[in-house]
Design a protein that fits this description.
With about 400 residues, the chain is an alpha/beta fold. Helices cover about 50% and strands about 10% of the residues. The chain folds into 2 domains: about 10-180, Rossmann fold (3-Layer(aba) Sandwich), CATH 3.40.50.1970; about 185-385, Dehydroquinate synthase-like - alpha domain (Dehydroquinate synthase-like, alpha domain), CATH 1.20.1090. Helix 5 runs parallel beside helix 7 and helix 12 crosses helix 13. The mean pLDDT is about 95.
């Protein structure tokens, strides 16, 4: 075996009905809690009220900030941070999808650090780990794994840049993962968040820094997504599928916290800075066909393993053949889950190609990919992702 390191500071509480423990969990971490959510809507309003009631029953004061948004900006984080300061919050609770949890994490920094939170993104001012407020995360989608990651992805409200805050103390103290909370997620969001979970594990597996230990997590997550994501899209109330996807999402989060993602995530991050109306999972789905075709020859054994997870018949094929077929299998999977889409479908401007490619090179993800891309390579991959044969 290769040498490996593994570290993770979260307590993971996984299972059906675990949401009922939230009041006791918060009380162990603080008594004045900022609850971070999106604005209440029919599918989630009952849950938010239940969380507030459970916390109040334990003597915890709740301040509800419902300003989280998809693709969170530094502006919405700064507003939440000011509310937390004004109310002397001593613990932050994020209930929602990955964007909501990332917002909660960033608020845990902004509340206790001087200046706007954007100043603490990667490569800028250092986060003081001792000052970060305790974070509790309750995911309501089975995808991002943000409940166990050590990063918070945000976007500048002025510049067309998407970046991240990073520190081990941004990893939630407790990740309460209750699959029941995902039963109402609509099909398209199920698909995009589920594919995000796939990419976390896939990119960890092919990463130059991959680990024999983390590979165990990654392969289990890939198996779960491959088998159960189409089922959950078809029948959102299928408990076995929802449980498997919640587990895959958490495993994927553990993977990227220890190993990291590769080129597709770097491009998708840069894309998210320039394009509105495109989710992270959609961006990855758009990029994957071209990136895989460009990459597989440089990670034949890894692509072959994944190809055989999709199609066991490939056990009879050579590694090279199975690796190439893996690209076909992933494309078929994208079609099956309704994510066979292009940049043109999402109304992304071709004028932004150069800027997206340039911003990709400002992130280290591409350096961990099996094949190192330059500006021209990335530009070409983006161009080829603009239109898709239906």
């Amino acid at each position: 075996m290769r040498n490996f390191n593994y570290f993770h500071p979260s307590r993971i509480q996984f299972g059906w009905g675990r949401i009922n423990e939230i009041g006791k969990i918060i009380k162990r971490n603080g008594i004045r809690c900022l609850l971070v959510t999106v604005k209440p809507f029919i599918a989630m309003e009952e849950l938010f009220l239940k969380v507030i009631k459970l916390c109040q029953e334990e003597g915890v004061e709740i301040i509800h900030y419902d300003g989280a948004i998809p693709e969170p900006t530094d502006e919405c984080v700064n507003i939440g941070s000011e509310i937390a300061k004004e109310n002397n919050a001593d613990v932050i609770l994020g209930v929602g999808g990955g964007s909501t949890i990332d917002t909660a994490k960033a608020i845990a920094v902004g509340t206790t650090h001087e200046g706007g939170v954007w100043n603490y993104r990667l490569g800028q001012k250092r986060i003081d780990s001792k000052k970060v407020l305790p974070i509790i995360a309750v995911p309501t989608t089975g995808g991002t794994g943000a409940e166990v990651t050590n990063m918070a992805v945000i976007k500048s409200s002025k510049d067309k840049i998407k970046s991240a805050l990073a520190d081990w103390n941004l990893t939630p103290s407790v990740a309460l993962v209750d699959p029941e909370l995902t039963l109402t997620v609509p099909p398209h969001i199920t698909a995009s968040t589920g594919f995000d979970a796939f990419t976390h594990s896939f990119e960890t597996f092919i990463n130059k820094n991959s680990s024999d230990f983390i590979d165990i997590f990654a392969l289990q997550a890939l198996k779960n997504v491959i088998k159960y994501l189409p089922i959950a899209i078809e029948n959102g109330t299928n408990k076995e599928a929802r449980e498997a996807l919640s587990f895959a999402a958490t495993l994927g989060g553990l993977c990227i916290s220890n190993i990291g993602t590769t080129l597709p995530h770097g491009i998708a991050m840069a894309l998210g800075g320039h394009a509105s109306g495109i989710s992270h999972g959609e961006g990855l789905a758009i990029l994957y066909p071209e990136v895989n075709r460009w990459t597989w020859r440089h990670a034949i054994k890894k692509y072959a393993v994944v190809g055989r997870l999709f199609n066991p018949v490939l056990e009879k094929s050579s590694d090279e053949s199975a690796a190439e077929k893996c690209c076909d299998e992933i494309e078929s999977f994208l079609k099956k889950i309704g994510l066979w889409i292009s940049l043109e479908d999402k109304v992304v401007s071709e004028d932004d190609i150069g800027a997206i490619a340039g911003d990709t090179l400002n992130l280290r993800n591409y350096t961990l990919h099996p094949k190192i891309a330059n500006f021209e390579d990335i530009s070409d991959l983006i161009k080829k992702s603009f239109r898709r044969n239906k």
